[in-house]
User: What shape does this take?
Amino acid sequence: MPAPGSEGSRFPLMEPPMPRGPAVFDHSVFVCTGKDCSKAGAKKLAKRLEREIKARGLRRKAHVFRMKCTGYCKLAPVVAVQPGGCWLTREEPAAVVEQVLARIEGREPEG
Ligand code: FES
Assistant: This one.
């Protein structure tokens, strides 16, 4: 009987499956979509971030996650970027998008 993985074996050697989910991204962008952040435009902001990431061909580098209330409601909208522990709060959507993209692209934010 041929050894597993060798020619003619009924048990071909297979590549381990690619990890899926957060582990494959260099950057995770967490957008709070709790009640207060949503009132401050967080859901639109999350969609805008996803559009910009896609438009710049960064989908394999970064992913936007929607999260529940983080407890910092007075600072809405709340966005966090990992790695780096970057928290963006009370910022205009355009500024958040620019800062997030700058982190993902490894450059200084404009403006
Ligand atoms: S709703 Fe976003 S921090 Fe509470």
